[in-house]
## 1
Amino acid sequence: MSRIKKTRKFAAVKRVIGQRDARLKKNQNKGEDESKRKSKSDEVVREIPQVSSSLFFQYNTALVPPYNVLIDTNFLSHTVQHKLELLSTMMDCLYAKCIPIITDCVMAELEKLGSKYRIALRIARDERWERLKCSHKGVYADDCLVDRVQKHKIYIVATNDRDLKRRVRKIPGVPIMSVARGKYVIERLPDAPEK
């Protein structure tokens, strides 16, 4: 009987715990500190806006004729393109008296656009429409309109701008008027007449 030869293991070393191992006490303390810091920074302070008293679920009880319609630059230019009369077409759409309102920001935007939009500017300067003064800095009309609608839910927003429509849809109880198929179309107005 021969004996089985045992081979020697070369470079066999005991396993040593590394300096960054999570099992060491100093690293456990560091991990706890980091998790505390993360939890403090992750805490999101949520601000829930006050719900308007004029809202009955999604239905806005403050919207009654005569309707106040906030007009955007885009809406005016589409009205000119489709050769529509502003006030009469609005009244045909809503079957009620309308008060078109143009803010200073919209006027400034139209003036900036130059000669291409001169007819829209002439329509906007009409004495029949109501003008609203803007107290903020800058002339970005979309922010102005959204801010005004959030504060006072007594307006219908007239626009053809996709981004502005998306922003206004997030605000409950605010209808949107736009130009489509050669007439004005209203969305999210519960009393609106059927097409």
## 2
Amino acid sequence: MTTTIFERRRDHYIVSSEPSLLDPNAINAAFGSKAMYWCTSLPSTTLQTMLKNSYCLGLYLDVAKLHPVGLATQPKPEQIGLARIITDFVTFAYLTDVYVTPEEQGKGLGNWLIECIGEVLDGMGDLRGAWLIASEGKGDEYYRKKLGMTPLEQGKNGICMMRRLGPTGFGYNEDDTPSH
């Protein structure tokens, strides 16, 4: 597992892979919101395990920069977004759970977070492939432009992407309605 902490700062915002900055309560609140239609909140221990076993880039509002106080009482940055990568840090990366809270959207922060993901992926010199699931149309075009992702053509070159949904997985019922 990589030990190098990724960190970028812009104005009063931070993108960081520092695990101690992650706010499980804020992440779970986002997971349970309507804005993140593809997932639901998780039991605390499940969420902790998920975060511990992933490479997470948190997006934070640097509260201390907005409201300076003495060094001894610096407040922890407020979590306002996340991008989670499931990876072996060498050959494989799967990007998931990317969000910016609705209150902070429209400020270019999502684009910046994705640019940071691009830096992380570019740093994996032996990367065989990076994967993600995106909505057709706007979503796939965005990731194509920002990260150089391309849709996987089923059956091309003998490749077939497959899945198995778990009991909490986002999918569709037989009548094509979302399962949650």
## 3
Amino acid sequence: MEELRGVHRRLTEERAEKGREMERRRVRIEQTEKKMADLKENIEVEIHAAHDEYLKMDSHIKLYITEMEQSM
């Protein structure tokens, strides 16, 4: 009976340790997913800003070319 209690105790400890390890992994995965989502959002913001800047510069260049053609 004592041997059975020892086995039960050991199995309970192993299960608890596996549960803690699973929780650590879950938290780590959630943190990684959050970082990835934040990075994706930052990249999308940068892309949008670069596109807006491109459109602005394109407009300025076209205006400059139009003014140069008119002055000739």
## 4
Amino acid sequence: MASQHINEEGFLATSAALNNITDQTLNNHAADPRSTLHRPADHEQAHSLLSKLLPKHAITGLETRFHMGNYVIDRQTGEKHWEAMSIYVRVGMHLLYYGSEQEKALHWKRTLNLLREQSEKMGKEYDLPESKGHIKPFIDSFQLQDSMAEMVQPDPDKYSCFNEFFAREIRPDARPIAEPTNDHVVSSPADCRLTAFPTIDLATKYWIKGYGFTLERLLGDAEMARSFDGGSMVIARLAPQDYHRWHAPVHGTVEAIKDIPGAYYTVNPQAINEAGTLDVFCENKRSVMTVRRHPHGTPTAVVAVGAMLVGSIKYVNGVDKLGTQIRRGECLGAFYYGGSTVIVIYPPGEVTLDQDLVHNSIDEQCETLMRVGWRVGVSPAGEGN
């Protein structure tokens, strides 16, 4: 009974905190989002002090262990950058950890309802014309001024609401694909923090440590899962400040679309990497697109996974019509508000993932900053082309 009391107390406190954070955000359109919803969960002064007193590897372990954020590696420079966890994500993490009966807490209908209600609340509010007031503070806070020039609509005042801005469309020439004449190359599906694993077993050993993960559960199809057994996996996490559409990683034909209802847990690495917690990829709302890859004739699964405070997952330009031909780098869909993830799965032997991405993911256990269209790997037949 004591553990049930702790769980009840923790749930009520977390629920009140999350509701307070979202209310503060929605009630003050002109507020800096980094003072409300996206306030860093760590403290800059504390991080600065630790940097002076402790070696870098010690700080990495300390801050990661206490769930204040995580490091990512810039692919272009090779440098590690600290990314603080937003306060709303940190509060959401409590829904995964409070109390001594974690497994029961994770399955609570009240927890699922809380996350759904908060996500729907933000989605509805950000569809209203008044939400335009959030756009400029969001741009200023995350220093997105220069990136707006890459958008089809570069003028923030022209968006009808915050969600329209959040799912803004980028100009195709702003994200050229790597090696465009090489059909054997596969590319990043998003502007993202990316991990790449040559096998599913390596992904579950080094990254996806929550219980309950299987390909069958993720894809919602046992037969499809068998065709990818032993294959490779790319996980592309989109932070709220990222361009929030996802693109085709390969050329091919759309063979199937399967929408799977689910929860709205955070997809922050701390939630994915923690052993003993629920696997959020198999629990969250998601849409699975199966593509018959050209010219190889093999399947590729592209899984768009919603997350905490994500209002919806929408395909664009009719690409969800079966039989549609898609080109590598073509826009497939948009997420509306919140962080999200795109998982790409290839059959065994289909793709050799780029070594720097694999090294960062396995040896460094770190995500790599990527952009749409950047090379992720190549099929054996295309190596050396």
